[in-house]
Design brief:
Length: 840
């Protein structure tokens, strides 16, 4: 693909005066933008980004200028006076408001049976150009004066506080205070009939949570408390105060991503901001807290200091991924949120990063169409957060904070590259951070450290770990070993090292799962760890079990070795550890066919494993119960229902209520609903939930109903549900991926949904091609298919699409992933099934 020139090299904007009139009912907008800036060349022209806008006129220094549209969303403005130096460019334009959920778009909702709309924006990564002509690149920072003309009787929100509001005719004219220097992708506004709750931070920042009036005002309280305390925490942690006078957080009914860090006006999906005190689960509250903390950390990482170009996106997202956990752990220590990091981010990173062809954290981006492909949640977010957590451990928290403070103060309101951060952290720590981090940031993948002991001599060696077919790469990393004994070296710098180990305790590496590698122990060392499992911390238990799953998934060992290992977790009481036990069970399920002797044996094993915790926890929350048991109960009961424990099936059926879902225990709601869908012979439950779904305003409850319906074992119901996938009166476009993925992963729906996907690919393309998650579709599909026939069909179907920039990387990784799982199921399947049959 051609490399596109950076327009900032031709013209550097300094200030925008932007006035836009929004016509919601006609789905149009008109605007005029005045750009003060400097031409850097004497070519007699400048180039701005403009996409899907109608340009009416252009002026340069008050004189009419010629203009034309060019490729790559460029507007070329020509005038003989455009010499090197300062100029004022004025452009009048108009555009269309579309449902694409980027640029300027409408959100739909209903209050007391009355349909309503609001208007919102989404400009990251390069969609500001759909709202006004600009230099739509992160480095092109400028200040903004924004005026919006709208209908009356609405809230009008922008990045900054309102400077003035006037009624002109039948319209409301709102002008905002001037912004600090910022990138165009962070400009935002929201216009509509909204409600809010407000608090003030210790430093005087006004924090407001906004939503439509479709929700009870009490649903805003939790986020308000978290947001206010998070700003106070970051003010102290970074040693640099929050830079704006206000922080608005808006729950949008329609939103493509989870949330967006627009400076001073953060936008969210409703499920990521609103908490119903009666119906939201503990996990739901934790999700809201981490998302709010993630977006608020961006006000420093990304907004105050911004990456120079998208190849350093990790400077935004990796830090935000780590800092959300740092903040929430400080605010809610009882949640033990770092265990969630270990079971979510770490697991996601290790699995994705094991596939040949995956991107490095730092990756070249030469064309705007490539930008959406680098927002890989498992790499730029999860792996990046894990590596920064590793770095924090390497330099110490004090040096980390000192370095970050210097970084923010040195580069406030400007743009940076990786070396700028490494320099600040090197000065603070006295260590060469750039050299230490270079291999981790620029190389894809991670190492497996092989540990072998002969007598008292231990040999450690590293090589890149892969799952599935791959080309062997001669890569190595400087690995912090975090050994459990002082006899173990601090780092593995070379490909191999040996040392004497006389400690009586089992040799263990990566204590605390801090560094980004896994360990393959020889048989005797593995046996030593297994025998001491009960003495390990929760994070070390789950990390060891997950490493065994990865080694089995790679074909290094058989999944049959996992079965006896699971019995060591029978008396485990930690929910995070159990989540990996559950993951192991789900992976073993892939080797068995439903209603076979092998599945019967697997269910018997599961029943035996969960028996102690099922008896201990019961079905009802106890007084003063800790958060761990509250979350563990739902997981154990779900496993009990899979194992067909009669008393669990009976209790779940007795608790089902189709006329008042809000009264169900939020922690057990999904499990109870899914049990009713799967085990009710008539269509009454499915009919009831299908009828109810489009009327539900509570996002978490809506997701629970979706999860339950898509768990059906009835192929006629699957066909029926697929019929709703393109019906926007039934489900919002933003929720399509939930329905699609869960139906595709359903054993009874996989074949039908794979055919549905191929039959409806043009609709998927038309609907999602402009969406930042369009590239995820090959990934969704490859992660669900399991047979050689399906693999061949996947290759045949996607081969013509390999050159489509947004899809190319995930298509090719999909080939690798499918070849790996098909080979694994064919070669290891007989061993696993025999091991199940051999269970007592």
């Amino acid at each position: 693909m051609e490399s596109v020139s950076r327009l900032i090299t031709l013209f550097a904007p300094e200030h925008y005066t932007l006035s836009i009139t929004l016509n919601r009912t006609e789905r149009t907008f008109d605007g005029i933008v005045t750009i003060n800036g400097s031409a850097i060349t004497s070519e007699g022209q400048i180039r701005l980004h403009s996409k899907d806008l109608t340009i009416h006129s252009t002026l340069v220094d008050g004189k009419r200028a010629d203009f034309r549209a060019d490729t790559n969303d460029e507007l070329v403005i020509s005038h003989k006076d455009l010499t090197i130096g300062k100029h004022v460019v004025v452009v009048t334009f108009s555009g269309i408001i579309t449902d694409d959920m980027n640029g300027i778009y409408p959100c739909y909702f209903e209050v007391d049976g009355v349909k309503q709309e609001l208007l919102a924006t989404q400009f990251e990564s390069h969609y500001a150009r759909r709202a006004f002509p600009c230099i739509d690149e992160p480095e092109a920072k400028a200040t903004f004066d924004v005026t919006l003309t709208t209908e009356q009787d609405v809230a009008v929100l922008g990045n900054m506080p309102v400077k003035s509001q006037d009624i002109q005719g039948n319209q409301l004219v709102t002008t905002f205070e001037t912004t600090p220097r910022m990138s165009s992708y962070l400009v935002a506004w929201v216009v509509g009939d909204l409600q809010k709750k407000t608090a003030t931070t210790n430093s005087g920042v006004e924090v407001s949570i906004w939503s439509t009036k479709a929700h009870a005002a009490s649903n805003l309280d939790f986020a308000l408390d978290i947001a206010t305390r998070t700003i106070d925490f970051f003010d102290d942690y970074f040693g640099v105060p929050y830079p704006l006078p206000k922080s608005d957080h808006v729950a949008l009914p329609d939103f493509s991503s989870g949330a967006m860090e627009n400076w001073g006006l953060i936008t969210y999906r409703e499920i990521a901001l609103l908490v119903d005190p009666k119906t939201t689960t503990l996990s739901g509250k934790q999700y809201v807290a981490t998302v709010v903390a993630h977006e608020l950390s961006h006000q420093w990482f990304g907004n105050l200091v911004t990456m120079k170009w998208w190849n350093d996106l990790w400077l935004n997202e990796s830090f935000a991924d780590m800092m959300e956990y740092v903040a929430v752990d400080a605010l809610e220590p009882g949640w033990d949120i770092w265990l969630d990091f270990a079971t979510a981010d770490v697991i996601s990173a290790l699995r994705r990063d094991s596939l040949d062809g995956v991107q490095a954290i730092q990756v070249d981006v030469t064309h705007p169409d490539e930008i959406s492909t680098i927002f890989d949640p498992s790499i730029v977010y999860a792996k990046g957060g894990r590596l920064l957590r590793m770095l924090q451990s390497y330099v110490g928290d004090e040096a980390m904070r000192k370095g970050l403070k210097a970084y923010f103060e040195r580069h406030a309101y400007t743009n940076t590259q990786a070396d700028d951060l490494w320099a600040a952290l090197s000065e603070a720590s006295g260590k060469d951070i750039g050299s230490f981090m270079h291999a981790w940031m620029t190389q894809p993948g991670y190492p497996v450290v092989s540990a072998n002991k002969e007598n008292e001599t231990v040999t450690l060696s590293q090589q890149q770990f892969f799952i599935g077919p791959h080309e062997d790469k001669d890569r190595s990393w400087p690995i912090p070993l975090h050994g459990a004994s002082p006899l173990i070296p601090e780092t593995l710098q070379a490909k191999e090292t040996t040392f004497t180990y006389t400690d009586e305790t089992p040799l263990r590496l990566n204590q605390g799962s801090t560094a980004h590698f896994i360990t393959q122990y020889d048989d005797s060392l593995r046996a030593g760890t297994v025998s001491s499992l009960s003495t390990l911390s929760s994070v070390d238990k789950l990390s060891f079990l997950h490493e065994q799953l990865l080694l089995a998934k790679s074909g290094t060992q058989s999944y049959a070795t996992i079965l006896p290992l699971l019995t060591f977790f029978k008396d485990e009481t930690n929910e995070s550890v159990w989540s990996i036990v559950s993951l192991a069970i789900n992976e073993i399920k892939r080797f068995v066919t439903p209603d076979t002797a092998e599945e019967t044996k697997l269910k018997a094993l599961v029943s035996e494993l969960i028996s102690p915790q099922y008896s201990r926890l019961g079905w009802d929350q106890k007084t003063d119960e800790d958060e761990n048991d509250t979350k563990l109960r739902s997981l154990i009961i779900a496993l009990a229902l899979y194992s067909e424990l009669p008393e669990a099936i009976q209790e779940a059926a007795a608790r089902y209520k189709d006329d008042s879902l809000e009264e169900l225990d939020p922690e057990l709601r999904t499990t109870i609903l899914a049990n009713a869908v799967r085990r009710t012979v008539s269509d009454s439950v499915v009919d009831s939930l299908i009828k109810l779904y489009p009327t539900i305003t509570n996002s978490e409850l809506r997701d629970d109903v979706c999860s339950a319906l898509t768990s059906t074992r009835d192929t006629t119901v699957i066909t029926r549900l697929a019929g709703y996938l393109k019906d926007t009166s039934f489900l919002r476009v933003q929720d399509f991926s939930h329905w699609f993925v869960w139906l595709l992963r359903n054993y009874y729906g996989r074949d039908y949904m794979w055919q549905w996907t191929r039959d409806n690919w043009q609709w998927i393309t038309d609907t999602f091609k402009g969406d930042s998650h369009y590239d995820m579709f090959p990934r969704y599909i490859a992660g669900a298919l399991i047979t050689r026939k399906q693999m061949d069909e996947f290759k045949t179907f996607f081969a013509p699409l390999e050159n489509e920039v947004a899809l190319s990387r995930n298509i090719k990784i999909g080939y690798t992933e499918l070849e790996g799982i098909v080979e694994l199921l064919e070669t290891d399947g007989p061993r696993v099934r025999q091991a199940l049959l051999d269970l007592n």
